[in-house]
Amino acid sequence: MKDQILQKLQEIELQHNVEILFAVESGSRAWGFASPDSDYDIRFVYKRKMESYLSLWDSKDSIEFMTEDDLDGSGWDLKKATLLLAKSNASFLGWLFSPIVYINRGGTLEAMKQLAIENFNPIAGFYHYHSMNKGFYEQLESKELKLKAFFYATRTAFCANWILKHETIPPVLFQDLYSLIDEENAEFLDKLIARKAHTNESGFSAIDDKLIALVKEIVLENNNLKDSIKAKKANVADFERFFINQLS
């Protein structure tokens, strides 16, 4: 599949006259709990020709594609990506720290990671995950709970809790969040991950009551302590310098 992904990204470069600086996998495959029928969520940052950044007229700042063989692609222009990074956009941080990298050119990915670490705003990250969690949390009461919904509820709760406790960017790989929980619950989750690997996206599965209680407990802690998180402002000059260097 990697060859197909690289071929499609090369087509995108030619079609749109851009250079892809880096491309990664996002979503459940990057998180480590994909289903057999999970899409490939390809995310990338690209750079246009210099003259387009100097134009009076705004250019399109994103590229999307969907193929018949489950390649779901979404890319952002370098300027858009840099502005979102300055806001600690949690979705984009997930791209940056994905464990699955398809393209990595010119040191852009590493430079953006460093900017992300040095300028991370815990409030922005926490409320992204805590707000997302509300919709998934309600499904925990369902008698027919999809494995996908359970893992989304658990991951968003864990990521918010990580930020609450560490004030750093949460790991992308789900199992790297296990330091938040005890060994027994980690083993339960590993068994569910193994089960999900053989269950389609729409599949249901019995989930241990202890795990449901664990997620609810973490969500309650997140809600009770949310006002204790400190804000951090981005160093605007660092982002300006990075962007100019990328264009030169």
What's the CATH class label of the largest domain? Answer: Alpha Beta
CATH topology of the largest domain, by name, is Beta Polymerase, domain 2
**Major sheet details:** 5 strands, mixed
Name the average pLDDT: 92
Percent of residues in helices comes to 40-55%
Structural class: alpha+beta
Beta-strand residue percentage: 5-15%
Beta strand count? 5
Q: Walk across the major sheet and give the strand order.
A: 3-4-2-1-5
For the record, what is the CATH homologous superfamily label of the largest domain?
Answer: Beta Polymerase, domain 2
Radius of gyration: 19 Å
General shape: globular
Give the number of helices: 11
What count of domains describes the coordinates? 2
| Poorly predicted runs | none
- Summarize the helix and strand pattern as letters: HEHEHEEHHEHHHHHH
3D structure, described in words:
There is one protein chain. With 248 residues, the protein is of the alpha+beta class. It folds into two domains: 1-119 and 235-247, Beta Polymerase, domain 2 (2-Layer Sandwich), CATH 3.30.460; 122-225. Helices cover 53% and strands 13% of the residues. The protein contains eleven helices and five strands. It has helices at residues 2-16, 28-31, 50-54, 78-86, 90-96, 108-119, 122-138, 147-166, 183-196, 209-225, 236-247; strands spanning 19-26, 40-47, 62-66, 71-77, 101-104. A five-stranded mixed β-sheet has the order 3-4-2-1-5, with helices on both faces. A hairpin with a 4-residue loop joins strand 3 (62-66) and strand 4. The longest helix has 20 residues, at 147-166. The chain is globular, with a radius of gyration of 19 Å. The two termini are 34 Å apart.
